[in-house]
Design goal:
Layout lengths: L1 H14 L11 H9 L8 E3 L2 E3 L5 E6 L3 E6 L2 E7 L1 H5 L14 E7 L2 E10 L2 E8 L2 E7 L4 H13 L2 E2 L1 H10 L1 H7 L11 H10 L22
Antiparallel strand pairs: 1-2, 2-10, 3-4, 4-5, 5-9, 6-7, 7-8, 8-9
Helix pairs in contact: 2-4
């Protein structure tokens, strides 16, 4: 019976139905219910990889491996680490007892982590899974809904090895200069705070997103 409830929860989330309430779900329960399932959906395709955006989440800024996603009032900053994926870099994350929430993720031969830290009245979320990472600032009341959307996105990332090997191989010098340790959480998020305050996307009626509004994550490090 429990497995049926979990499958229904994930199905409703993916389909965009709003009747499911996550208020009574623990974060660990949400993580298990989403990541235990092999998500093969996709509606956003890039050179060498693709992923799925749940209903209500939209892509507003994009670069090859960096995107800004909008979910209601929140911006999600997505980074896909194709270089680490191609080299199958080992997950070195260690859970942090001082965080509001910290958990290493290992599901379906994919790994990552979820770490949440309090910051100026909000929560700084760092979610990494299968060599893709999302960062966001979320109000406490919206944490569970946001985490469910973020994990649905990350669990859907699929790579095309042949395309990535060619594309990254031809640009390896650029990627080596911009490489980051995706398995190491920032925790000290002062640079991210400055970045969000300056470049946070706030759409107006009729406004089209401009690619000049958002700098790449590597440019602010």
């Amino acid at each position: 019976m429990k497995k049926i409830v979990i499958l229904l929860l994930v199905t409703l989330l993916v389909s965009g139905c709003t009747v499911v309430r996550l208020d009574d779900e623990s974060l660990t329960g949400i993580i298990d219910s989403i990541l235990q399932n092999d998500n093969t959906l996709s509606n956003e395709v890039f050179e060498g990889y693709k992923y799925y955006l749940p209903k209500g989440v939209s892509l507003v800024e994009k670069d090859q491996y960096n995107q800004v996603l909008l979910d209601g009032d929140y911006n999600y900053y997505l980074y896909v680490d194709a270089v680490s994926y191609l080299h199958q870099v080992e997950n070195t994350y260690q859970e942090n007892k001082n965080s509001y929430f910290s958990k290493r993720l290992d599901y379906n031969n994919k790994s990552g982590y979820l770490e949440i830290n309090a910051s100026q009245g909000k929560y700084f979320v760092e979610a990494m899974f299968h060599y893709a990472k999302v960062e966001a600032f979320i109000e406490e009341a919206d944490l569970k809904d946001a985490i469910s959307h973020i994990l649905l996105i990350l669990s859907s990332v699929q790579y095309n090895d042949d395309v990535l090997a060619t594309f990254v191989g031809n640009n390896i010098l650029n990627y080596s200069e911009e490489s980051i340790d995706i398995f190491k959480p920032k925790r000290e998020e002062s640079e991210f705070l400055e970045y969000e305050q300056e470049y946070i996307y706030q759409p107006e009626v009729g406004e089209l997103p401009s690619e000049d509004n958002i700098q790449l994550e590597e440019e602010i490090k």
